[in-house]
Amino acid sequence: MDAFKLDHRLANDSISILKTGLCDFRLSRDCRWPWLILVPQRTDITEIFELTPLDQVMLTFETELASTALKKVTGATKINVAAIGNIVRQLHVHVVARFEDDPNWPGPIWGYGKPEAYEDAKRDQFIKTMREALSS
Amino acid sequence: MDAFKLDHRLANDSISILKTGLCDFRLSRDCRWPWLILVPQRTDITEIFELTPLDQVMLTFETELASTALKKVTGATKINVAAIGNIVRQLHVHVVARFEDDPNWPGPIWGYGKPEAYEDAKRDQFIKTMREALSS
């Protein structure tokens, strides 16, 4: 089996904050929304249904972990979960904290406007807080 | 426990084609994309993580069933799966067949343009085909 290799666009646009049994948990570099991207560390997978049943269940519970941690840390109004992948075909699941005054609410975040970078200190603090929430 | 009651907007915008262990499988009345909406028949649930672990696993496998059936029937380039719910808060999962020449490709479908209705005969034929694919 080939070693897992992260798509270069995911590598550029997000930062690894934790690796679990299945996924690389990554923080999007776009600060407009608190936004995690879960990448199952499996080769040549585009659709969730291409994962084994066990991996699908693991993805479900790792998505739950990401969702509950993000809800707890941010107090979001709504968590948006999506596997789209029309552009980047390597399977990845978006877990996004949404608020009623955020950009494009209540519409979707994907493809909306231009990414905005975190300030370094805010990004590092958010990563620390999320790591603690994901591990507790 | 209160009886399950479908949100009136989901009731208006989609048609039930099958009920399984957990979900009401519904076809969106918007014909621009082949688009299923899975509604877990549980009361007062907004987020996937509010479902019991067993229901989360059932939702995973029913989403897989919807995805593989939609892929098989339509030959889609990509299946988009999402639980957003910023407007309609009753938990529902979108499973959408996407093509490179469809409206707003490769962007998301939610909130894009105006819904277009199926012709009755085409809708009925698609429902029949999907029911067979979901049951085989």
TrEMBL record, chains A, B:
InterPro entries: HIT-like, HIT-like_sf, HIT_Hint. One of its GO terms (molecular function) is hydrolase activity. The keyword Cell wall biogenesis/degradation does not apply. Keywords: Hydrolase. Residues 36-105 form the HIT domain. The keyword Hydrolase applies. This is Diadenosine tetraphosphate (Ap4A) HIT family hydrolase. It comes from Rhizobium metallidurans.
